[in-house]
Fold this protein.
Amino acid sequence: DGHRLILSLHQGTLCEGWTWIGAGDVRMIHQLCESRGVRISIVLTNTPWALEFRLRNQDGNTIRFGSDSDV
């Protein structure tokens, strides 16, 4: 269906773990999060692997949202 979910656990680091959620339109999700006051830890960034942004929850876990890169 074109959607991806990646989970990772990093024991012994500052981050307990992270989740990467692939989306068709990450800009729309970013805008929705901003409009609802969600704390974004890394702003929308175009990288070689994805256009993505990151949130961090109260337990220190990172949630990454991404879609196809513009690079």
Notes: The mean pLDDT is 82. The longest helix spans residues 26-35.
